[in-house]
Every structure is written in C-alpha cells, then in structure tokens.
Amino acid sequence: MAVSIVKNSVYNTANEDTSMGKIKDEPGPKTAFNKTILNVGEETCALYAFKETPSRLFLFWFLTIVTVGFYRLFAYWMKSLEIAIRFEETGHEDADYVMVHDNHGIKTIKKVTNKESVKGFIRPTRSGAPEKIHSMRFFTYRKIKYIWYDKEQAWINAAELDSTAPFIIFKNDVDDRKGLTEEEVLSKREIYNRNSLIIKLTPLIVILFKEVLGPFYLFQVFSVTLWFIDQYAYYASVIVLITVLSAGLAVWEMRKQEKRIREMVGESPKVTLIRNGNDIEVDATEIVPGDIISLPAHSFVLPCDCLLMNGTVIVNEAMLTGESVPVTKASLKEADDCGYELRLSPERHNRHTLFSGTTILQTRNYRGQPVLARVLRTGFSTLKGQLVRSILYPKPPDPQQVMDVYNFIVVLASIALCGFGYTIAMMVYREESAKHIVVRSLDIITIVVPPALPAAMAVGTINANMRLKEKKIFCISPSTINTCGLINVACFDKTGTLTEDGLDFNCLKAIKKNEEGKPMFTKEFEDLDPEKLDEESADLNIVIAAASCHSLTRIDGILHGDPLEMILVEKSKWTLEEPVNSDEETMDFDNVQPTVLRPPPEQARFHPEDHEYSVIKQHPFNSALQRMSVIVSTPSEHSAHKMIVFTKGSPEMVASLCVPESIPKDYSDVVDMYAQRGFRLIAVAAKSVHMNFAKALKAPRDTMESDLEFLGLIVMENRLKDVTLETINKLSVANIRCVMVTGDNLLTAMSVARECGIIRPTKKAYLITHSKEEKDSLGRTKLFIKESVSSSENEIDTNSEVREFDQKTDVLKSRYQFAVAGPTYAVIAHEYPELMDRLSAVCDVYARMAPDQKAQMICALQSIGAKVSMCGDGANDCAALKTANAGISLSQAEASIAAPFTSNIADIRCVVEVILEGRCAVVTSYAVSKYMAAYSLNEFLSVMLLYWEGTNISDGQFLYIDFVLITIVALTLGNTAAAKNLRKIPPPPRLATLGFYFSVFGQLAINIVTQVAGFLLTRAQQWYIPNPEELDNHQTMIGTAVFFTSCCMYLGYAFVYSKGHPFRRPVYTNWLMCITIFIIFLVNLFFIFTNVPFFVDLMEFVHIPKLWFCFVLFAIGMVGVFISLLYEHYFVDKIVNVAFESYLRHRRIRKDDPTLPAYERMLASIGSSPSWFEKELAMAKLTDRRDTMESSF
C-alpha cells in the first residue's frame, strides 16, 4: 500500500489524469504537485496534500458564523467547498491534512498527526532492515495507518512493507528463540497500533447527527418548520413522528451492524509469547509484528497473520476459502533456498502462512518442542481485518442511479419554481401580507418535492431482502439487490457449483511396457487392486501413489481432508497412522513425525518386508503449480536411504514434469477423450531417489518434482446437480449470458459446459489455444483457434421456449462461443491486450483459471459495461465474489463475508431468485418514484387551482391525502412479490428514461384535464358558493369539489403504478395493498356521498347540495383514472417503453452510438462470426511472411 509522489520538473497534469482513471472534480489548480496515488486494498484512490493557514482558518469560521452554519453544512456535503476556503495546496512532506478521493467519488479529509519520541520508533523499510526514527508523521484511513517516508517521498502502510520483505530475512530467523525486547515492543506498537479488530461503538448521538444531516432529512426539517408556521400542525406532527422513527430505525440498524461485526470478531484470547527469551502470557491485543507466538496443540483461533517457524500445523481455513477441509502448513525450514531478491508473497509462501481467523486443528511437535510462529501482520492489516473492513466500508450504491434521483428532483424543483412564481404573483395581486406570501410560496416547494421520496424508494429493496431471507438467501449489503436486477452476465464456478461437491471414482488407466519396451496404457480398472494390475504387468507404484500422495490427516482419530483424496484412500483400502510424540520415533527426522501408511494384509506380497511406508515430507497442492507431491520412505535395514517421490496433478502439468520416454504415444488422445466426456483426470508420476532424510527434507521442490516417470491416469466422475441445466436454460432464455470460470481442464470444462447448456446447441464453439515455442514476427506467443463440438439440441432444449430461444437470431446475440484456458488468457492479457475486450464479449468458458485470473476476468467484463454476478462455493472464489457486481456464495462458512449474498441451499437456483428479486426491487423503486411524483404534481395542481380562488386545501384534507392516501399506500405498493419466471426483456437500467418522463408528465396532463374539468363545472353551477375572499379560508365549496375529484386520482395511481407483468406478480396478489385501497376507496365514497357533521367539520368540507353533482365529480375522477390506466399500460408500456425504445436502441446500434454499452457495440460488430479473430491471426502470419521475404533479399 505504498504511495509515490508524482513529480516532474514541469507538472504534467495530462499524464496524471491518465494514471488516475476517471476521478473528477479534482480540487486545486491545474498543477498537481500535491497529488499522489494511494492503493487501499484493491482500490486505487487519489491523495491530495493541504496545509491549514491562520488566515484561511479564520475565513472558514467567519463564513460558518455569517451564514448561520449553512456554509459549514454545504462543506460537509461537498468537501471541495471546505478545501477551497480552509486549506491551501502543499507538498506531502509539509501536509497538515490530506484528502482521499476514492474511485466511487467519495472524498474524505484526514488530519496528519505528528508524533515524537526520545526513545524512538522502529519501523520497517523496503530492504527488510528495521529503521529507528524519533519523529513520525501519519494519518489513518479506513483503519489503516499510513506513515510518511522521507526517503521514498511516499505514504506507506508499514504492514505492507513487512508483507513484501525479502523472504530470506524470515527464513534466517527460524531458530530465533529470544523474541523482542520490551523496548522494541513499545516502539513497534506506535507504528502498528494494537492487535485488535474490535470496533468501538459509535455514540448514538453521533450516528443520529450523521443520519439527520443528510439533504433529505434537512429538507424534512425545513418542510415541518414551514408547516408549523402555517399552522398545519397535524400532518407536521405525523411527519415528525415518522422522521424520528425512520432516523431511529436507521440508527438501530447501524448499531446492530456494529454489534454483529463485534460478535464476528469475537473476544481476544490469551496467547503465549517469547520475549527476552522468556515465555509470557498476554492478551492477544498486545501482539506486535515480529513477536514469536507459541501455538497451542489444538482448537485455537489465530489472532494475527504469522509465519510458521517450526513443526507442522493443520488448520481449518473455511473463513478464507469456504471449504472446511484441513490444510497442512509447513514451517519456513522446508522452504526452498532463495536469494535476497525473492520477496515474501501470499501466492508463493501461502503454505508457510497462518492467517488470522483460521482455526488450528492440530499442531505437531518436534521432540517435545513448542510449535512457534513469527507474527507478520496484526489488526486490520490481517486477512481477516481486510474482510472486516470490506463490511465496514462497502461499495456505495450505483452513482448513476443516485444521480438519476437527484436529476429527477431537479426537474420537480423546476416545476416548483414555476409554482413559486405563480403563487407570488397571485398573492401580490390579492395584496396579501409579506409573511403570507413567503409561507405560501415556500409551501409550494414542499408539495412538489416530496421529502419522503428516498424512503419510499427503499421500500422495494427492504421487501425483497425479507423475501430472500425466507428463501434461505441472506444479504449483508441490501443496496446490492437493486444492482442484481440489471445483471446481464452470470458467472459460475464449476466444481461444487454447477456440479456435485463429491467426485466418484470411475476408473484407473495404468502404464505398462509393450513388446518394444515403450510405455502404453492398460485397460480400465474399476478399483485399485494390485493383483489385477499385476496380471496386466502394470506399474504397481500407482496404487502406492493413490494411497500416499494426499494431505489427509487424523484429528481426534477421524480422517479429515479433501473428499477426492478420501475416496482414493478408501478405494486403496490402506490405513493411515500418525504416531504419538516420542523421541524414539523422531530421532531420524529433522522435521515432524512422519505419517505411516500400511496396505491391507491381503496385499502384503506386493510390498517389501515390514509392509509400511512413511510420508516424510509433503508439498501441498498449489493451484498455481497445479500439483502436489510427497516423499515416501520404505524404512528397512537394507534401504534406509531409498525413497520415492510421488506427484499428482493436472495431466498437462504432470506430463511436462515427466521424462518424455515415459509418456505413452496416445497420451493426448486418451486425455482428450476422457476430458470431452466430462471426466476429471488426475495424472500420477513418480521417481526413486537415494538420499538421507536430512537431504530429502531440504531438497528444493522443483528438483524433487522433475524427471518423473509417468504412472497413469486416475479418472474421476463429477455429475451435474439436478437443477443446473434447468437454471442455465432459464437464465439463457432471459438473455442473461452464462459463463463458466473454473480451475479444471479446458476439455473437461467444455464437456460440462455442453452438458449444462452454457455451450448452446445452435452456436459454434471454438477453443483458443497458444504455443509457447512458436512466436509471430512481433515476438508474441502465437495463438490458434480450433472449432470444438457444440452441445446436443435434444439434451439442452428441454421445452419449446428454450428451443425457440436457441433458434432465434438477434443482432446482439453472438452466434458462436469461445473457450480459453488460464495460461492462454494470460498470454492474451499481456501480449494481445487489444483483443481482451472483444474476447470478453464472446468467451463463455474459462478453464484452468487461477483465483486472481477469475477476478481479472470479471473486471474485463465490467470494463465493457456488463453487470456481472458470480456464484461460487467459496473455494478460490473469494476474489471473484468480491469483484462482481453481485457475488453469491454457496458456502455457509465465514468466507461468505466476501460476498453480498449467501445461499444456504447449495445450488444455483439462488442466482435466478436473486435476479428476480433484484428486478422486482428495481421496478418497484421506479414505480414508487413515479407514484410519489404523480401525487406531488396532483397536489401541486390542486393548490394552484385553489390559489386562483384565494383558498387552499384544508389541514384535514392535507393530512388525509399525505398520510392516508399516499404514505400508507406507498408503503404497501412495494409489497408486490417478484415474478415467478425471468422474462426476456430486462428492466430499464436507470430511472431517468424516456418512458419515465412520458409517464410522469403524461399523467400530469391527464390530471390537469380531470381537475380543471371538475373545477370549471363546479364554478359553473347556479348553486355554487364562491370563496368569501377571507385570508386562509380553507372551508370552501370549490376546495371540496377539487378534493373529491383528486382523491379518485390519488387512489387510481396506486393501480396505475402497480403493474405486475413482466417483473412482478399481478396486483391482486398484493392482498395488503388491495385491502388498504379498498378500505380507502370506501372512505372516499363516504366523504363524497354523505354529509356527516363530524367529518364535515374535521375535513372542512362545504356540503354540495346536489347529489347528482357528487356523482358527476366521482365520474370525472374515475374517467381520469381509466384514461391514466390506458395511457400508462398501453401508450407508455407498449409504445414508448417497448416499440419506441427498441427502435431507438437498434438505431443507436446501427450508428455505433458511443453512449451504448461497449459490449452491445462489440456484439453488433463481431457477433455474427469469429472471422475477426481469424483475421488477427492471419495478419500476424502475413507480417511474419513479409519479414521473411524481406530478409531473403
């Protein structure tokens, strides 16, 4: 997390803008000497340095006092206002304050603290050597401390320097038993802070103030104040009550979130440390980096990240990977020798690193010595600390959607200004008092801009979250639900997500020698029986490899580990023993006690002497290396130094490590044959070595895993889950592209993709591969494209709807699909970056992908405008789950913290449910927005008409409209459940669409006609009693008539904007809303057709003497409702939203409009044929040929 100052002799802002991406509204003048880059986790932020001067500070407080705090309030909302007045730009070496500007547009000002100490502070450096300083400048951002380093001219997180220090420093200190001195501990604590993830509970008053200082809460304060001045006390009191309850609920939710995080962090345990050569027991919060911690034997949750110094530790890393599979960690002593240039890295040295939050299941001692680990990272710099910070600082809502709401409010405010001017003109004409003119004109603004709009828009999201909980899908970031409604690419892990968790043993293909002495495959064996293998003259070492090459371990007498390895050991019928500690049993070993393996008695004749094997060293599986290995000893008096190295892994990787003479001729054909049928293949190899135990333990991994003899293939079967094909078909028919991203073999991935419908039967499939040996004229690795087999229409097209989808062509629908493996993807990313965007638009199968590549692939999709979901079981998927717009974890482990959604039902049905609820929440928020806008404009129009007559709506009528007709109905409006099935057309991607404005202003026009008709008809009657022109007279006949007409329209809007199809269920299924509307409708009829004195006085009605005219007013209102329904459901929905928007969209596609998402423009351009890729390859070949011809002359 180091940051470097951007400095040039001439400050080039263009270059700096490029480095920052799309960060706008940068403070200060064009020069950028005060700007640098700050990497906060996976996010890149801009960092600006400022200095506070007395004159500027005086001006800041002067403006605050003169404007009665309004300047301070606006500066709180817009940090640029505070920066412009309070600070001046300066270099980072002199900064008093820094401003962090993240890539979501959020600005945070942080004070730089200066600290001095006579004893000094010990901080790390890039070289790895500690440095003692006596003064320190730092600031804290998102729980991480950044310290100023003068030499590097950079703000650096000290923990990051420790995490990337030269590895040899840690390896050379493995025998340290002295630990830190008390002076060093105190000094380091100033650099790193306490080792604690405990979140201090924010005082309730602070939470409340932050909540109510938002623009909408303050607008509500303004509105309520005005209403009390206007003696509109009833509704003002109700709004105050609702606002207090709403703010209280928000405060309660925030406090509950803080408490939930505290519970997740847990209590701080007691630990044993070695300091000054002595063992001391302290609270875990006292730990500092560099401490040596003595690990308990079992059942201990690690409070920090540390490096294992000796022994072996078995941990449960479910918190990180989502899989409750024990992982064996090896000590630094077993690390390969390295030079000073090799630095500590999480990928390379993961097997030596113990992570905070993981649980120690068992430690294994050497000769009774304690198992020790050196503390690497503490507090929020640990891996668990990063997870906690991701909860504390989640991604903000989509800024485009927030801007749409603000833009819409600006439009309403513009209408309010027109009413503001109209009101002033009318009041001045009537010669009313200045106070009355001000109150009435400002009241117009509170009517047109509904202060409850944001709260009403959240109703759909709240209800969607509740329904998801009922379906066992839990969300820790409700703001993500709306984003799910816009998902157009759904990514899936394969194993455990699309397919079943467990694997079944299918067969074994061993190796034997033919008549010429060359290797060949045997027939298929259905079990690991050495007798049957011996009959075929097969190499029996493959059985030993299957029984020994694994990471299984016994914990409390029960075998734990990878299910695949459990199956192989069970098939072999071997037993695994881990002896208790004793000096006698470990005298010959420089490491921990070996695991002893014994074959069953009936297989004794196939094994030497005492029939036992000892695993003396294990190289755990590494996803980057795609293999694991063990060193097995056959202890006996005659062969003390005879050992065998067994390696298993992916067929490609193991083949590359084998002696070519040991590989059968048809190796690739056999591998491809099984892979194309969807089987998972494990290649096994071995070699014999003669060395003593000490040399074997210290031998580098690369040396031991080279020049191997190939032993054969183990074929495992991985079946699809029952719901996978059905779910993929549902998503595909809804025009949601499905993508597989897996760490498995490319051909196996293709087979599963065909079986589950990701590869469609009507599309051609192509494999993109590369050759390391061949280069083009530019020195780039050559790429190749090869057609593959598509899926079977009979198996995939399960019904007529799916069949129709597959047969239909569309300009935005690719007619082919690419598949690529991780190594090829890396080649394209580094050597052919110009192809990445187009590849992302058409590639649907990604195989052999490392965890970071999965995240990179999702970023590539997002960069071309796609909204991406990722569904995985947690193993190696955490980075991808966090990167996606909507990550859905199928793991119930703590790793699910990385994903906004967690499903307790471990299959991909949850993806459909989340998208359905997301679409429902999105259209509900749009509908509530339109409903609130229509109500505001309806009320605005009523007030405008009554101002013409010098009157207004009475308090009782206002209260009934605002609270009963609007607030209660709006709350039930969002209660309509999501549709049962996904539809082909997605919801609009934003609020401010053409259809939205056609709807709002079209309804306004219908409303004008309806209310004006009732207004004019009432005034035209002979019995009409005009307003007596008394100031604030609200009890008028024209006011009563307008109220009767408008009440029908208010209630009608609930039905107008409650349309179910295609994203919600029919309105009648929302029984709560229907009952509410029915009751309110009866109340409306009661008001219109009765004349009960109590209600007449309460509502300030004037009795209309003719009953037939009441029917006329009711009929006008109902006709207006009917026209509104027709206009909304036919003109807006069918003509504007479907026909016209479709016409505009296709027109924009034809014109390659840059405002379209990049992926749509790409599909329109390259979706018909992969010829664009072939042309790229042909051009490379042509360039190569030209160069050859030129060189020959």
Automatic annotation (TrEMBL):
UniProt keyword terms in alphabetical order: ATP-binding, Magnesium, Membrane, Metal-binding, Nucleotide-binding, Phosphoprotein, Translocase, Transmembrane, Transmembrane helix
Annotated ranges, domain P-type ATPase A: 268-391
Compartments, record wording: Membrane
Pfam families recorded: Cation_ATPase, Cation_ATPase_N, E1-E2_ATPase, P5-ATPase
Spans traversing the lipid bilayer: 58-77, 197-220, 232-252, 405-424, 444-464, 931-948, 960-979, 991-1017, 1037-1056, 1068-1094, 1106-1127
GO biological process: intracellular calcium ion homeostasis
Catalytic activity: ATP + H2O = ADP + phosphate + H(+)
Keyword Transmembrane helix: yes
GO cellular component: plasma membrane
Residue ranges of domain Cation-transporting P-type ATPase N-terminal in the record: 174-226
Top-tier EC class: translocase
The P5B-type ATPase N-terminal domain, residue ranges: 43-148
Designated name of the protein: Cation-transporting ATPase
EC annotation from Swiss-Prot or TrEMBL: 7.2.2.-
Naturally occurring in which organism (per UniProt): Caenorhabditis japonica
Molecular functions per Gene Ontology: ATP binding; ATP hydrolysis activity; ATPase-coupled monoatomic cation transmembrane transporter activity; metal ion binding; P-type ion transporter activity; polyamine transmembrane transporter activity
